[in-house]
Amino acid sequence: MITPVIYKKNKVVLVGDVLVGKSTLIARAETNSFVKQDPTIGSSFLSYIAHIDSETMIRLCIWDTSGSERYNSFLPLFIKGADVVLICFQRNTPFESIVKYKNYINNLCYNDARIYFVETKIDLLDGFEKTNYNVSQIREYINELKAPYYKTSSLTGEGITELFHDIGKFILENKEDESDIIETVHESKLCCQIL
């Protein structure tokens, strides 16, 4: 029987421009199917269990933030104290937008949150990436930073399980000590538990 370990602090925040697919990404992670989402108003929250190995699971507290500029003033509330921040982008995301989010996160995260870059909607590329300057410029920037980078598709599910597995593994490996553990839960209790 798998006994998941639940930690006090395991905050994951998704940021990115409006309509890049942040909400659809976490809906795919939660349901393992494609669920079309409306743009997020303000933010939304999801508690997700990431399977690290056959005996280890971790609950990720995922905050999905709106990409709309009118909600940017709320970003510090969500980013502060994050373990991981995902900067989500797609094929037509301006390079400047990626740099803006990266600098913004660095200025807010006194705890050195790990930044992941997540390219969404890769099922739509079909040769587009070869002719798109933004995508190649963004990928070059990510390589220079030596940051974790994932290509994902909410439609096909490609890269999503691996992304959240890696995030969970990173959080587990970087816990200060065992005092971060608040409880262990038997698998049978995971079904209908509300957080």
Give your account of this protein's structure:
This protein is of the alpha/beta class and 195 residues long. The protein has one domain (5-177): P-loop containing nucleotide triphosphate hydrolases (Rossmann fold), CATH 3.40.50.300. The protein is 31% helix and 25% strand. The protein has six helices and eight strands, in the order E-E-H-E-E-H-E-H-E-H-H-E-H-E. The strands form two sheets. Strands 3-4-2-5-6-7 form a six-stranded mixed sheet, with helices on both faces. The chain has a two-stranded antiparallel ribbon with strand order 1-8. Helix 3 links the parallel strand 5 (84-89) and strand 6 (114-119).
List keywords for this structure.
single chain; 195 residues; alpha/beta; Rossmann fold; six-stranded mixed beta sheet; two-stranded antiparallel ribbon; 6 helices; 8 strands; 31% helix; 25% strand; globular; disordered C terminus
CATH class: Alpha Beta
Shape: globular
Beta-strand fraction estimate: 15-25%
Mean pLDDT: 81
How many independent structural domains? 1
Spans with pLDDT under 50 lasting ≥5 residues? 188-195
Helix content: 25-40%
Class derived from helix and strand content: alpha/beta
Per CATH, the architecture is: 3-Layer(aba) Sandwich
Fourth CATH level, the homologous superfamily: P-loop containing nucleotide triphosphate hydrolases
Number of contiguous helices: 6
CATH topology: Rossmann fold
Measured between the Cα atoms of the first and last residue, the distance is 22 Å
Radius of gyration: 17 Å
Q: How many β-strand stretches?
A: 8
SSE order in H/E notation? EEHEEHEHEHHEHE
Oligomer: single chain
Lateral arrangement of strands in the main beta sheet: 3-4-2-5-6-7
> Largest sheet, if any?
6 strands, mixed
